[in-house]
Amino acid sequence: MKRENSIDIVRGIVMIIMALDHVRDLMHIDSITQSPTDLATTTPFLFFTRWITHLCAPTFVFLAGTSVYLSLKNKNNFKEKRQHLIKRGFWLLLLEFTVVNFGLFFDIAFHTLLFQVIAAIGFGFILLGLLLKIPAKQLGITGLVIIFCHNLLPLIPFAEGSVVKTVLAPFFSPAVIPFGDRVFIMGYPPIPWLGIMLTGFGFARYYEMAYEQRKKLFIKLGFGSLGLFAILRFINIYGDPALWTVQKDAIYTFLSFMNVTKYAPSLLYCLPTLGIMILLLAFAEQFSNEIKKVTMVYGKVSLFYFILHFYLIHILTLAMLFLQGFNWSQLEFATGTFGRPKSMESGLPLWAIYLIWISVVAILYKPCLWYGAYKAKNSNWWVRYI
Question: For the whole model, what pTM was predicted?
Answer without folding.
Answer: 0.95
